[in-house]
Amino acid sequence: MKRWTMASLAGLLLGASAGAAADEGMWTLDHLPVQQLQQRYGFTPSPQWIDLVQHAALRLAEGCSGSFVSADGLVMTNHHCANTCLSQLSRGGQNYMADGYLARKQEDEPKCPDVELNQLDSITDVTARVNAATAGRSGAERIKAERAVSSQLEQSCVGGDARTWRCDVVTLYHGGRYALYKYRRYQDVRLVFAPEQSIAFFGGDPDNFNFPRYDLDVTFFRAYQDGKPARTPQFLKFNTQGPKAGDLTFVVGNPGSTQRETPWTQLAAMRDGSLIPTYGYLSDLRGVLWQYSRAGAQQAKEAQDLLFGIDNSLKVYKGWLQTLADEDFIRRKQKDDAALRDWIAADPARRAKYGDPWAELEQAQRRGKELRDRYTMIAGGRGFGVGTQLFADALTLVRGADQRAKPDAERLPTFREANLPAVEQSLEANVPVYPAFERTMMAWSMEKMRQILGADDPFVRETLGRQSPDQLAQQLVAGTRLADPAVRKRLWDGGAKAIAASDDPMIALARRIEPVATRIRKQYEDEVEAPTKKAGEAIAQARFARDGASSYPDATFTPRLSYGKVAGWKEKGEDVPPFTDFAGLYRRATGADPFKLPESWLAAKDALDPSTPMNFVTDNDIIGGNSGSPVIDREGRAVGLIFDGNIHSLGGNFVFDGSVNRAVAVDTAALVEAVRKVYKLPRLADELASGHL
Amino acid sequence: MKRWTMASLAGLLLGASAGAAADEGMWTLDHLPVQQLQQRYGFTPSPQWIDLVQHAALRLAEGCSGSFVSADGLVMTNHHCANTCLSQLSRGGQNYMADGYLARKQEDEPKCPDVELNQLDSITDVTARVNAATAGRSGAERIKAERAVSSQLEQSCVGGDARTWRCDVVTLYHGGRYALYKYRRYQDVRLVFAPEQSIAFFGGDPDNFNFPRYDLDVTFFRAYQDGKPARTPQFLKFNTQGPKAGDLTFVVGNPGSTQRETPWTQLAAMRDGSLIPTYGYLSDLRGVLWQYSRAGAQQAKEAQDLLFGIDNSLKVYKGWLQTLADEDFIRRKQKDDAALRDWIAADPARRAKYGDPWAELEQAQRRGKELRDRYTMIAGGRGFGVGTQLFADALTLVRGADQRAKPDAERLPTFREANLPAVEQSLEANVPVYPAFERTMMAWSMEKMRQILGADDPFVRETLGRQSPDQLAQQLVAGTRLADPAVRKRLWDGGAKAIAASDDPMIALARRIEPVATRIRKQYEDEVEAPTKKAGEAIAQARFARDGASSYPDATFTPRLSYGKVAGWKEKGEDVPPFTDFAGLYRRATGADPFKLPESWLAAKDALDPSTPMNFVTDNDIIGGNSGSPVIDREGRAVGLIFDGNIHSLGGNFVFDGSVNRAVAVDTAALVEAVRKVYKLPRLADELASGHL
């Protein structure tokens, strides 16, 4: 509910698995491809190995992955996964995102205001329970029934201790399976080490999704419990040599979402109705942020986190649009869909059982097209709050008060009891608010809303009144007191009564929006999402019936394991080698942003072994959300840190092409070398080497 | 060659006619639909009527239309067609685009630095000449032959007097016909009257392409000859009453381009390879300009012209993308293409004559996809000069010197002798240059180039060197002397020698770019444009052979006549009436931008008759480039001024739907009333009423 992150962006799209080839697959930890692994790599994971990687792997609730790399709670993730924490901790003239942060001793490890780690404890198949609850229902009834059974399952899983446990009912195979995921929750997460942005993201946007690459995209956090470093006996020991070409590699992490089983009709609707408009929308926002940043260092700091996210999303969108314009891909999808449809149609019993889910999908897509703009702008909050803190908090407060007044089973998932600790952590976080930035984002968002919905839309008329977006934004940001975390806490604790009594203009705006947003959201859920999901389930079940459930489900931002090997690829006939090294980094540096090395690296040049491997590529099957995942060897040791995919990996959202799709990682050898020789942090280097503080 | 206007934008896209229905059609003046007009409206235009509208109608070379509305050279066009002139004339604290300009007497009429008017003198069919020259040739040979014959035809048409005459060989029906258009050229064009932007574009972007509408989107210019108002006996007399609902209306103007006969394969390639990327590109630029403008009144003034154009283009693109995602439209196009392809395939003689142009098109599209980014960024100048004056001038000077050294027949069309007066007018225009704006646009353009071509593209590496785009832009803008028109003139007059000797950094940059750009352009022309054109010709000729040449050609920014009637339409089941009035304008005003009325209109409210018709809609078939066209009645009188289409008109680029596609015009009654009572200009009001100064 805070800033509009990549995760919430992905949420605006719709989301499906086929016979896996090459090193394809994002496998759930309870159904690993044991046979393939043995056949292809002569490796069978032991129960201990599986237990280790499961408990060492972490999910960052805001949209990334990580891992424990010491027995004392040390967490490895990406620099770009810590952007929000680094920005939020930067007060006054500090800019930890740009300049890095080094904790030389434990007392120097500051708490991130708003980071939550999840460690997978167990997976339980609850398909029968969910299916029993939703059988024979459709539309609003179905949504209500599914929410009720999910709430029951989650509550009983949490067992009254939501500060320790987090439980989510996860829809797999587009409704072919349901599983209850139970995680241990860590909310006291502190910052240990972050390098400068200029080395973490060396090459910047030009090199993003490209390779060769030279990035030290790492941050180390530490999980605390009861004010002390958490005891985490199951962690990945560092293999300080990194991997070799051809080595078997595993990635355990949380791929966000894929659409590999989604029917073409739905992909086409997504492209035209959502992807293209959002591409334009984000491009516009990027231009605003680019120019905003040029006004000075302070402005650059205010905009950096959001600008980074948007630049990244735009590259992803561009890659998606290319795949969705690929004629071979389209023909293959259409053929696959037609074959399954024919298979159903060929048999009366199947027709009776599955119906014609494609026709239902088409109908739902048409309705989605009619409703989408208002749904996105009003219910999705894009019309007011893109990139803003104050409006997002106001909406969370108003919506939270309203939702908490309902029985748990009827609430939106975000506001179920089991999830309230995450909401509260975010609301109460003492983070800086930049009025000029807030004003700019609100003015821009409202102007876009008026442009997209039209000046004559009744909601637009009522909300803007006789003011311009700029005037209204000015008045709201100047008038609100929500920048103060104590004010937010009072309003949250006061519930519906405090919200109703508030004269804060931002709260007043959110109060005006919320009933309209609720109506629109309900209509979209009932008329678009519910029938889409029902049709998706029928298609998934038909596919199971025809092919057997031998494959992996589409990604759902839950822990998955992928296997593969360290390997380059051929680009336009040329071999791309799988490793880069420090020597290449210094060659690529120009002195000008984004190819400008920080002082620390210029100073350390002579002390470093130029042949140290820096980044490498593997053919593991990953996607956005896997950022920060460890690369693991046969022995269960960390050999790398995933931070990106190559340009061909973007199409992986729709189809995995093992010949060119590559994951990009930082080599553990580079990490150890940098920590010791560039940043001169023997305490951290020793912890990485020994696995203990 | 100056700013990147909508015209040059349209030039990046590719460009085709079917049996015309309803009031469809953009007819050339030498082939009017006389039979349909008689049948549907009982009207047959007399030779005098045709001669009048042909000579009263004008083309504004930069991308608009206009008309003579008095015998003393008074020209009516849109306010938005005068944006560039209004911006260029605004020195110091003046902002004529925002605040308007009123010439109370003839001495107050300032010369627009860079406006050229073209008055159609004659049309000559030169199909046989061109076909004879290109017969049996393809690729580079074909382009060369076509350029040579065009140059010969144009030169002999101009007859050595390029200051008076302008001649263009125009490709009609995608190569089915060629015609030589001869125009009288007016380069001394002065500003008479422009209202405030806030009434010219009342409702701003939110109301753009919408209706009801309340805009006074007008500018009056005056053509001069020999320092005196030009004598223009063929002009449109004002019908000061405006039209009535159902009245027969004609629009004569210059529709820019349409793609109604373009095969689907080409449209799909355009959508995916050009439209979507450009949509994102322009959106990004819009964001930059939006934020740039918010820094203050001076910055808003610097950015306003470009921002207006981009906002407009983005709405057009959005409409196009919607049509190109419409399944019914796609199916119909595919069916049409398949039918013609089958018709050819059914007969060996036809196969021999036409070949398989669709296969050739597909091949050319594939090649286009590979070459497009470099073509657009480097040859098209997007990588450096979007929105800049200084870089555009540098490139014109360098390219012009190079091109003028060649024989006329081998030059790019822009630099043929017959066109040099327009280039020189533009280069020598004494217009303001805003360094901060230039820097911003250059930095942004180069950053986008690096993003799109990649940091490892050899051209990008060589051009940027070790500098960031911002550093390089700063250095170029600070170091160049091209802001001085005298410097530009010396370099132009000095030709290749002066260019080679120049140490101006902007010239040096253009010198480095030009050979690369030339190579890329030639490759794109030879491998993409030439085969596309050849295939388009074959398709057009096959269609002629099957259907007869009974229809109108796709738009080519040449004078066309469309006929229709004043009529509203049904929107979501509701009637939209065809007229708005002054009363509605005052009701819609809120006091906040873009619904804020200027002081002049607030002050005049009581003096105005609230029932005066302000804007109206007709079902004339128009498109971008028709802006500023007169609406003409049966008697050959002006009854309105086209300034927009409704939202359904955007799809008109691909298909005309007479049930909802509407042109939007200012009523002549409103124009006369405003000039007399709001702006209190009796001299101009009398001239409009009498047709004489």
TrEMBL record, chains A, B:
Any one Gene Ontology BP term: proteolysis
Top-level taxon: Bacteria
One example GO MF annotation: dipeptidyl-peptidase activity
EC number: 3.4.14.-
Keywords (A to Z) from UniProt: Aminopeptidase, Hydrolase, Protease, Serine protease, Signal
Cited Gene3D superfamilies: Trypsin-like serine proteases
Leader peptide range in chain numbering: 1-22
Similarity field: Belongs to the peptidase S46 family.
Function: Catalyzes the removal of dipeptides from the N-terminus of oligopeptides.
Protein name: Dipeptidyl-peptidase
